[in-house]
Amino acid sequence: MSYYVYMLKSIEKKPVTYVGYTSSIQNRIKLHNSGKGAKFTRGRKWKLIFKEKLGTKNKAISREYYIKHNRALRNKIKNMYK
Known about the structure:
Blueprint: E1 3-10, E2 17-22, H1 25-33, E3 46-54, H2 57-69, H3 71-80
Antiparallel strand pairs: 1-2, 1-3
């Protein structure tokens, strides 16, 4: 089974980003936009700006952690989609 690490960007004047991992990217985005995703994402509308396919859940978790904690990389990805 493949897993994805993804970054969402909120659709608002001052956008924020969210990084997560999943095995079903389309289903997960629907959950975030319907208010049933992670607590942080509730009340906002999101669009997918980045996804990366990985072979195992452990690799996806590690990559998610890396992107979440590497502010320079996160900002680079975010700024590519202004």
